[in-house]
Amino acid sequence: MSLPSLKESIQAYGLDAKKSLGQHFLLDPGICARIVTLGGDLTGRSVVEIGPGPGGLTRALLDSPASRVDAVEIDERAWPLLEELAGHYPDRLHIIRQDALKLDAASLAPAPRQIIANLPYNVATPLLVGWLRQAHSWERLSLMFQLEVAERICAEPDTSAYGRLAVLAQWCASCSVALRIPPGAFSPPPKVHSAVAVLIPHAEQPAPELFRAMERVTAAAFGQRRKMLRSSLKSIGGEALLDAAGIEPTRRAETLSVAEFGRLAELHLARSR
Ligand code: SAM
C-alpha cells in the first residue's frame, strides 16, 4: 500500500501543531531533502532524528542511503502515525517513544551515527549541550535552530553573539551555519527565522571532567560578561588562574579565543583536584 501524503497523515491522525512542544512542521519535501544532504554520504550510517512529528524529514531520511533511522518523539499523538510509516520501512525506521532530554545514547544504533533534526526550539540548547558532552558519539550533527541560536553557536570572539554556547560548541566541533530557512517554510510559521547548523566533532574530545570544568569557567565568565575576568572568575581562581594561563586579568570574556578558554578549563581542573 502506498504512503498517504503528509497532509493526509496529519489530518487522519489529528496532529494539530502544539505550541508547548515547539511544533512547526516542514511539509515541503524539497526542503527536507536539502537538510538531509547536509549529512553528506549517509551510506551505512545510522541517523537519529529528534522530534519526527508527522514525519516529513523522516521520509527524506528514509529516501537516503542511511541504514537505519532512530526517530525520538515525545508526542504520543504522533506515535501511531510514525508506526504506520515504520511499517513501510521494516527494520530501517525505529520509533523511540521518549523525551529526547532523557535519551541514553547507548540505546541507539551503533556508530557511525549522526543526528539530523528540526529541533523543538524550547529545548534545543539543553539538547545540544547534552550531545556536546558526548561529542565522540557523533560523526556529525545537522540541526535546525532558530537563526539567532545557530548564529550564537558559530559566533566569533569580539561579537555580541559570542558566548558560552559558541565556546562549548567550537571547543568540541567545527561549526557552520549551512542553510537558512524562512518562517513560511513551516506549518504553522514560527515568529523567528531558522537555520541549520552543522557541527562536525573534532577527532580529540575533552574528558567528561574537563568538559565540566569548561562549563564552570564559561558560566562564570559569561555570567558577568561586562566585567573584567579578574572579577567574573573570582569564585574559581580569579587573577591567579588568569596569570597561570597567561591571560591579562583586565580582559573581558568575549575577547577570549576558544583556545584561551581551553587553557583556563585545564588549569581550573588541575587546581580543583
Ligand atoms: N521533524 C518534524 C518536521 O520537521 O516537520 C517536526 C519538527 S517540530 C519543530 C519538533 C518536534 O519535536 C515535534 O514533533 C515535537 O513533538 C517534538 N518534541 C518536542 N519536545 C520533545 C522532546 N523533549 N523529546 C522528543 N521530541 C520532542
Structure write-up:
It is an enzyme of class 2 (transferase). One of its GO terms (molecular function) is 16S rRNA (adenine(1518)-N(6)/adenine(1519)-N(6))-dimethyltransferase activity. The chain is α/β, with parallel strands linked by helices and 273 residues long. The protein is built from eleven helices and nine strands. The chain has helices spanning 6-12, 29-37, 56-63, 79-88, 124-133, 147-153, 164-172, 208-223, 229-232, 238-245, 258-272, and strands at residues 25-26, 46-50, 68-73, 93-97, 113-118, 140-146, 173-181, 186-187, 194-201. The strands form two sheets. The protein has a seven-stranded mixed sheet with strand order 4-3-2-5-6-9-7. The chain has a two-stranded antiparallel sheet with strand order 1-8. Helix 5 links the parallel strand 5 and strand 6 (140-146). Helix 2 packs across helix 3 and helix 7 (164-172) crosses helix 11 (258-272). The protein is elongated and about 70 Å long. It starts with 5 loop residues before the first helix and ends with a helix. The mean pLDDT is 96. The chain binds S-adenosylmethionine.
Topology summary:
Layout: H1 6-12, E1 25-26, H2 29-37, E2 46-50, H3 56-63, E3 68-73, H4 79-88, E4 93-97, E5 113-118, H5 124-133, E6 140-146, H6 147-153, H7 164-172, E7 173-181, E8 186-187, E9 194-201, H8 208-223, H9 229-232, H10 238-245, H11 258-272
Parallel strand pairs: 2-3, 2-5, 3-4, 5-6
Antiparallel strand pairs: 1-8, 6-9, 7-9
Helix pairs in contact: 2-3, 5-7, 7-11, 8-11, 10-11
Bound molecules: S-adenosylmethionine.
